[in-house]
Sequence to fold (424 residues):
Amino acid sequence: MKSIAIIGGGITGVTTAYVLARKGYAVTVFEKHRYSAMETSFANGGQLSASNAEVWTHPSTLIKGLKWMLKSDAPLLVNPKPSWHKLSWFAEFIASMPQYKANTIETTRLAILARQHLYAWAEREGIDFDLKREGILHIYRDRKGFEHAAQVSTLLAQGGLARRAVTPQEMKAIEPTLAGDYYGGFYTDSDATGDIHKFTVGLADACERQGVRFVFGHSVDRLKTDGQSATVVAQANGQTQAHRFDGLVICAGVSSRALATQLGDRVNIYPVKGYSITVNLLDAASQQAAPTVSLLDDETKLVSSRLGSDRLRVAGTAEFNGLNKNIRADRIQPLIDWVAQCFPGVSTRQVVPWAGLRPMMPNMMPRVGRGRAANVFYNTGHGHLGWTLSAVTADLVGEVIEQGLPGSTVRGAAPLVPITQGTT
Ligand SMILES: Cc1cc2nc3c(=O)[nH]c(=O)nc-3n(C[C@H](O)[C@H](O)[C@H](O)COP(=O)(O)OP(=O)(O)OC[C@H]3O[C@@H](n4cnc5c(N)ncnc54)[C@H](O)[C@@H]3O)c2cc1C
Fold:
C-alpha cells in the first residue's frame, strides 16, 4: 500500500485525506495544532458560494485599493511597506488580469461540482455542520455596483450558474429582516452556507474511521524527496523526528509557499487577512431579527451566514500585511456596525471576533496537481473560496495522485515509525 503524508489539517488537508483514504492509500496528516481546522478553516464567512466565483483580478480592484489605501476602516487595506513577496505577488496579480473572464468561469464550474461532493460526503458520514440551503443574496446600494454584477452574472452563467436580478421589493420578500434602501440585488437560490470548522472536524472523524492517522501537535520543519521516497521532519515537544512516505501532499494554507520552496517548487501564496465576528443570538428577539438567507454586500465586501438558530457570522475585508493575525478593533467595528445597520433588531452585546489568513494565489486559482518531483502534490492556495472549492479540488488532486502514485484497494494507515530521532 502506498503511504502518503499530508501537511496541514485544515479544510484542504482533511478533504484530501478523505479522498485518498477512500482510494486505498495509507494516509498520515501532520498538523501543528492540537486539533484540525484551527487556522483559516476556523471561523470564516461560511458561504458555499458559486455566486462569489468572480476572481479579483479586475482593474476595478486596483482602483478601489488605491482609493482605500489611507482609510483604516476600508474593506481593502495594503500595508505600503514593500517586501519582495508582496511586490512579486502584485506583479503576478496584474499579469493575470487578461485571464479574469476565463478564471471566473472556471471557478464557477468548480464551485458547482464541489457542492455535489460536499453534500454527498456530509450525508454519507452523518456530519452536522449547520448547513443552510437557502441561497445567497448579493445586495447593491447603487446602479454602478448593480450593473457590474449584471456583467458578472453573464460569466457565472457561462460557468453553469443561474442567478437572477431582484428588485428591492423582491429582496425584502427573500430576506424580510434586511433593513435599508437598495438599488437592487442578485439572488442565487442554489448557494448555501455552513460551519467550516464543524464540517472539517466531522470529516476528520470520518477519516479516522477510514484509517487515516492524524499526527496533531507536530510542526513540519523540513521536507525532502528524491522523487520516489519523501521524508517529513517534524517537531513535537522539543523532539525532532523524521518519517518516510511514498508521497507528499501540501495543504498547509499560508505556509505552503515556504514548504514548496524546500521541494524546489514555487507556489506564490500571499496571506490575505480577513476578519469575522460571530454574533451570539442570545434572545428570541435577536433570533427573529437575524437573517436566515445568506448575504453578500458588494460595497462593504461583507458576507453573512446564519449558523444554526443562535449564531450569525459576518466576515470580510482584505488586508495585505504579511503573516500577521492581530485582531484590530478598528477593523472589527465596521462588521458590528454593519449588523446594527442592516439588522437593527439584532443585539450585538455578545460578539466573538476572529482573524484568519486567506492563502491567496496571485491569479486567484488554487494550485492543484503535481510538483517538480514525481511524488509531490499540491492542493492549496484557495484564497477567498477554500470552503466553496475544497471538495472538488480534493477530488481532482486525488485523481492526479492516482495516476502518478497508484494506490491499492486495502484501507488503513501504515505504522508511524520514525527513521531518525533527536532533541531540538
Ligand atoms: C475572513 C475570511 C472569510 C472567509 N469566508 C469564506 C467563505 O465564506 N467561503 C469560502 O469558500 N471561503 C472563505 N474563506 C476562505 C477559506 O476559509 C480558506 O480558503 C480555507 O479555510 C483555507 O483552508 P486551508 O486548508 O488551505 O488552510 P488552513 O485552514 O489554514 O489549513 C492549513 C493547516 O496547515 C497547518 N500547517 C501549516 N504549516 C504547517 C506545518 N509546517 N506543520 C504542520 N502543520 C502546518 C496549519 O496549522 C493549518 O491547520 C474565508 C477566509 C477568511 C479569512
User: Anything to note?
Assistant: The first strand starts at residue 3 and ends at 7. The two ends are 32 Å apart (CA to CA). The CA atoms of residues 351 and 372 lie 45 Å apart. Confidence is low (pLDDT under 50) at residues 409-415.
